[in-house]
């Protein structure tokens, strides 16, 4: 398996280094043929190549079996004409990574706020209100006058169908329940289409239980009783917000894994940002990127029928659970270790 690793900005190099050590340990234990190639992304790429991400890197990713994307300082990148490109958007759009799959679960050893739960948010990744990816050219935000701004939301049948199918397939391998999240009472045409397609898709999965909630009510239900949910499917912006909420409810955004998958490519990506305020201090939590990379191994293993990669993914997830349970983690989740040491703790449990 060939992987491209883009450490990125802020805490990216630190958590990427910890993740790479975990990968190396898993490869040794399970006999994985891993080849990892690091490339530049973010501010360092902008300084050296005039762009935060280049077509050359995209070509290398297309030739690889997966991508590990570290955090990028996207708030700093405002002018694409000057090479200030959002790397996450770039890969999601160019590789058609339509499904953002974000598991959230509680961990023994981390105080939970709302009781134990284990759920997955399946978020459509390529359209909706994200104006940097819903137009063939240009931008979906329009400044009509100095005082009037418009944002265009795109919802398509194809994108709704494939994200709904992803959710049902995932639920078939989990606890057999899918929740549709929408705002069809107000956005009758766009969210109405999404909801209708989800309901139609359910007819092909008669053994899967389904329900739906308005997005505002859903936030209350998730905070009140997250254990009732299994797989949650929704459109882009709702999913972005909801998955951050569920990750934080589990104890920390630093515990939320995330994979972006399409028909041919997949990208592991931490749920959080580049956190420049703590960069270089060896206190950043590496678990989100470690868990995201474990998801990538499982995606590849299932796709290629390579059980060793699925087993390695499971071992990494179990190692994270054990390290967290024993307090062998960073301070944000109750541990006393730095970034590198927390990564090494996970490595020790992977190796057993």
TrEMBL record:
Cellular localization per UniProt: Cytoplasm
Domain Isopropylmalate dehydrogenase-like: 2-346
GO biological process, one term: tricarboxylic acid cycle
Example of a GO cellular component annotation carried by this entry: cytoplasm
Entries under SUPFAM superfamilies matching the protein: Isocitrate/Isopropylmalate dehydrogenase-like (SSF53659)
GO terms, molecular function: 3-isopropylmalate dehydrogenase activity; isocitrate dehydrogenase (NAD+) activity; magnesium ion binding; NAD binding
Known EC number: 1.1.1.85
Main enzyme class: oxidoreductase
InterPro entries, alphabetized: IsoCit/isopropylmalate_DH_CS (IPR019818), IsoPropMal-DH-like_dom (IPR024084)
Entry keywords, A to Z: Oxidoreductase
Major localization class: cytoplasm
Entry keyword Secreted: no
Family the UniProt entry places it in: Belongs to the isocitrate and isopropylmalate dehydrogenases family.
Protein name (database record): 3-isopropylmalate dehydrogenase
Organism from which the protein derives: Mycoplana azooxidifex
């Amino acid at each position: 398996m060939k992987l491209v690793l883009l450490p990125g900005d802020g805490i990216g190099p630190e958590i990427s280094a910890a993740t790479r050590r975990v990968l190396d340990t898993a490869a040794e234990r399970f006999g994985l043929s891993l080849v990892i190639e690091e490339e530049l992304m973010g501010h360092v790429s902008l300084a050296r190549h005039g762009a935060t991400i280049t077509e050359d890197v995209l070509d290398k990713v297309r030739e690889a079996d997966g991508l590990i994307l570290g955090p990028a300082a996207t708030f700093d990148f405002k002018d694409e004409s000057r090479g200030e490109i959002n790397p996450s958007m770039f890969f999601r759009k160019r590789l058609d990574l339509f499904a953002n799959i974000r598991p959230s679960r509680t961990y023994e050893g981390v105080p939970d706020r709302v009781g134990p739960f284990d759920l997955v948010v399946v978020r459509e990744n390529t359209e909706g209100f994200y104006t940097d990816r819903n137009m063939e050219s240009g931008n979906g935000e329009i400044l009509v006058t100095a005082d009037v701004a418009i944002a265009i939301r795109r919802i398509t049948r194809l994108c709704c169908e494939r994200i709904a199918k992803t959710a049902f397939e995932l639920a078939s391998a989990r606890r057999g329940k899918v929740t549709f999240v929408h705002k069809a009472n107000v956005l009758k045409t766009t969210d109405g289409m999404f909801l209708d397609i989800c309901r139609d898709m359910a007819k092909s999965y008669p053994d899967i239980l389904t329900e739906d909630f308005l997005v505002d009510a859903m936030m209350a239900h998730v905070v009140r009783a997250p254990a009732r949910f299994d797989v949650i499917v929704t459109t882009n912006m709702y999913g972005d917000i909801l998955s951050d909420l569920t990750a934080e409810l589990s104890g920390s955004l630093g515990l939320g894994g995330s994979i972006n998958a399409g028909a041919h490519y997949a990208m592991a990506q931490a749920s959080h940002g580049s956190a420049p305020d703590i960069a270089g201090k060896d206190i950043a939590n590496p678990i989100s990127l470690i868990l995201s990379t474990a998801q990538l191994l499982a995606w590849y293993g299932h796709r290629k029928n390579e059980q060793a990669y699925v087993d390695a993914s499971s071992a990494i997830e179990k190692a994270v659970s054990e390290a967290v349970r024993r307090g062998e983690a960073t301070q944000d989740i109750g541990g006393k270790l730095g970034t590198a040491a927390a990564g090494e703790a996970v490595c020790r449990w992977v190796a057993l």
